[in-house]
Amino acid sequence: MLTGVCLTMATVAGAAAASAAGGASQPVVSSFDLESPTGVTYRVFMAVPEGEPPAGGYPVVYLIDGNTTFSMARKTLAEHPAMRAALVGIGYPSDDRKEIVRLRYFDLTPPTPADLIPLAEGMAPPRTGGVDAFFRFVEKTLKPEIERRLPVDRARQTLFGHSLGGLFALHVLYSQPDAFQTYIAADPSIWWNGRSILEEQKRFLSRASAGKGKRLLIETSGKRVARPGTDAATAGRIETLRSGPNGRDVYEALAASGLERAFRRFPEESHGSMVPLSVADALRFSLLDASPVSEDDRPAP
Which one is catalytic: 36, 257, 271, 286? Predict the structure, then answer.
């Protein structure tokens, strides 16, 4: 569509200028809207390095919450010429943060009772339960469209998600492990829906060598930051809902899964401030086989 063409041509011109000036080459960027079979429209952001594609096609990194994470990943791609990969950010055709939050609540969650959702007093619960429809969109609609536009290496596909997006990444790993080869779950919302993801984890681990040939990076934040204006009662209820096993516990529980695993904790970062660091780690882990050095106070097993 026209927006994608304009973005691409502008970026190509910028990349050529950077090359001539001896600076870092910028990836070629485009965007387009794509409708799901259920009638939801997504904004898809795409970036590829300049030049010819790799002989076997591009490795592809799919980024949940593309409205935010795509620009972070694009910056990392531009800084590392060895990352000959395509980035695909999955977002929404809106700049309204409230609307994006509403849409992602549905796309990234299983059906969730209202009493298991952390809400301020008087707030209406968001619509939930679209996780499987969203996965089908990614697998059956988005991936074929990307392959129509680019040569793709199907043996090197990565899924990145943060928060509920990290929960989605774990859900796909546990239920459809062959959909991607590498998974990155950054501060995954394991507590969501009464920790139902841990039941999926049990079923995953019950299958012999369930994760063989797959790679998983889990990262967690070290600081909790309360939302501004949250009263003590609401804060206590939210803390109770969000208590229990965390990313580190999931990482350790998967020791016998056959997965190639890595873990990193950011002790000085919050749930939000860790995102650009995790995006950069995701690209290094998936494209350069570089595991991050954990900043946790315990050695990763």
Answer: 271
271 catalytic, yes or no?
yes
Which residue of the set 147, 239, 268, 295 is catalytic? 239
- In this prediction the pTM is 0.89
Q: 131-158 as b/e, with b when 16 or more CB fall inside 10 Å?
A: beebbebbeeebbeebeebeebbeebbb
pLDDT digits (tens, 9 = 90+) for 29-39: 999 999 999 99
3-state SS, residue 263: strand
The CATH number of the domain where 232 resides is what? 3.40.50.1820
Does residue 142 belong to any structural domain of this protein?
yes
What's the structural domain count of the chain? 1
pLDDT digits (tens, 9 = 90+) for 218-251: 999 998 776 666 667 767 777 787 788 999 999 9
Of 30, 36, 163, 278, the catalytic one is 163
Please indicate, yes or no, if residue 91 is contained in any of the structural domains.
yes
Asked if residue 116 is part of any domain, the answer here is: yes
Burial class (CB in 10 A: 0-12, 13-18, 19+), 173: buried
Known active-site residue 163: yes
